[in-house]
């Protein structure tokens, strides 16, 4: 009976290792896409945040970008500039950043246009 328990434990370890490898590959795919698109470090950070959340607020993006310098954050409107530039780069690869009026933005496949 102990042979079965060892096999189950080994199987669970392999499943966990597989999950870790899949996560690592997903990160490499994002990095490769960022390089193909010519994303700046700021644009890449925004892309990663948008990719992992349904709707992302301006405040969440400000935190992701500027939490390391809370004494001297830039004007929050700078996010609009970054979103505009990122939209142009992502459009060539079938992505769009849809505006959720009064809430924030979300990453979508294909052009959805402006505010919803």
Give a description of the structure.
The protein is mainly alpha-helical and 116 residues long. It folds into two domains: 1-37; 38-116, Winged helix-like DNA-binding domain superfamily/Winged helix DNA-binding domain (Arc Repressor Mutant, subunit A, Orthogonal Bundle), CATH 1.10.10. The chain has helices at 2-37, 41-52, 58-66, 78-91; strands at residues 95-100, 104-109. The chain has a two-stranded antiparallel sheet. β1 (95-100) and β2 (104-109) form a beta hairpin.
Coarse shape: elongated
Q: What's the CATH topology name of the largest domain?
A: Arc Repressor Mutant, subunit A
What Rg is obtained from the alpha carbons, in whole angstroms?
Answer: 19 Å
What's the CATH H-level superfamily name of the largest domain?
Winged helix-like DNA-binding domain superfamily/Winged helix DNA-binding domain
Mean pLDDT: 82
Which residues form runs of ≥5 with pLDDT under 50? Answer: none
CATH C-level of the largest domain = Mainly Alpha
Label the CATH architecture of the largest domain. Orthogonal Bundle
Task: Give the topology string: H per helix, E per strand.
Answer: HHHHEE
Helix segment tally: 4
Oligomer: single chain
The order of strands across the largest sheet is: 1-2
Number of domains: 2
Instruction: Calculate the terminal CA-CA distance, rounded to whole Å.
Output: 59 Å
Sequence-ordered SSE layout with sheet pairings:
Layout (H helix, E strand, L loop, with lengths): L1 H36 L3 H12 L5 H9 L11 H14 L3 E6 L3 E6 L7
Helix pairs in contact: 2-4
In short:
The chain is mainly alpha-helical and 116 residues long. Helix content is 61%, strand content 10%.
């Amino acid at each position: 009976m102990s042979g079965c328990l060892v096999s189950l434990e080994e199987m669970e370890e392999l499943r966990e290792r597989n999950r870790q490898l899949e996560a690592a590959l997903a990160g490499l795919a994002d990095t490769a896409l960022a390089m193909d698109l010519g994303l700046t470090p700021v644009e890449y950070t925004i892309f990663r945040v948008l990719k992992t959340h349904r709707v992302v607020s301006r405040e969440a993006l400000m935190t992701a970008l500027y939490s390391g310098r809370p004494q001297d954050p830039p004007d929050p409107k700078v996010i609009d500039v970054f979103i505009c530039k990122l939209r142009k780069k992502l459009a060539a690869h079938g992505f769009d950043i849809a505006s959720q009026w009064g809430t924030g933005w979300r990453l979508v496949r294909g052009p959805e246009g402006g505010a919803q």
